[in-house]
Design a protein that fits this description.
Blueprint lengths: L10 H11 L3 E9 L7 E9 L7 E8 L10 H10 L7 E5 L4 E5 L20 H28 L10 H19 L6 H8 L3 H10 L4 E3 L8 E4 L2 E4 L6 E3 L1 H9 L8 H13 L10 H29 L9 H12 L6 H8 L5
Antiparallel strand pairs: 1-2, 2-3, 3-5, 4-5, 6-9, 7-8
Helix pairs in contact: 3-8, 4-5, 4-6, 4-9, 7-9, 9-10, 10-11
Amino acid sequence: MPPAAIMPPAEDSLLQATRSHFDAVEDVRIEPIAKGGSDRKFYRVGLTRRRASGGGAMSLILVAYTAQKEENRHYVRIAQFLETIGVRAPKIFFHDEAAGLIWVEDLGARDLWTFRPPAAGGHAAWPARRAYYQSALEEIWRLHTRGWEGLARFKFTLQIEFNAALYRWEQGYFFDHCLGRVFAGRVDPAAVARVAAEPVWGRIAERLAAWPRVLVHRDFQSQNVILHGEHAHLIDFQGMRPGLAHYDLASLLHDPYARLPAEERGALLDYYLALGVRKDLGPNRARFDEIYALCAVQRLMQALGAYGFLGLVKEKPEFLPHVPVALGSLREVAATVPGLEAFSELLAALPTA
């Protein structure tokens, strides 16, 4: 039985709440925005103020959240934290914690996904996409390099760090919700169980957990980077936690929504690494590439598990068409990782449609 749907707030209550937080409001218009697999509800709010108070129109984004996920309550503090370390993100206007409502700056509807290549159904040329992706990489570089120092000055609660248990959870999420649900009846359960029980998964988790951590976005993908003017701005960062920069990079460059060609992924990865030398990136390129490949495997397993869970448990079938692309990327990366030969064989045997 799927979980009960979260009922969105009544529009009248949102109108009233908005009027109570903004002075001299003459007119308020609220339009729902469909957004991803989140349990939050998003609205575009248009305000018109009285002439006597200066007049003028403004647009805001209203976020309605529930207590179902603890991380939702931390969005405002993280946005304020990002501002202190110079990372671009939407400005917070008001937060009504009792009602679970946040009014934030409307940066527009253009995101990195808007500039996806033709293979992903887009029309953007590489030069335009490259400039915006480079801007996004510059923002995430600032988070990765300034996060710890900024956190020492700006106290707030982070989500659980990427440790061995969390990496193991991501692996299990894939086996349970992708192979166990999306491919139920089309793959041998005994073969899945054998591969899932291999010791290599524990070794990967321990290997990544031992690597130096930075602060990571956690869901750094094309739909979570808004383009305002010529600059990228981060959104949906409430899952921020200590982890590996390699994981954020793999999230963006192997994003199934965007389907970046291999040559573009390589050029963008080179761009990020050229921004500066850091100990957490490894002593040389070979070591970086090793950890990056492991993080790409983890991220793609997490994404595929999410598509299965959201598509079949949360009854959001729009996520299921992304499975073949993500699976193709996972096959490609897993084939480069020593010790994942049996896993690669299992992936190769999966039906493609």
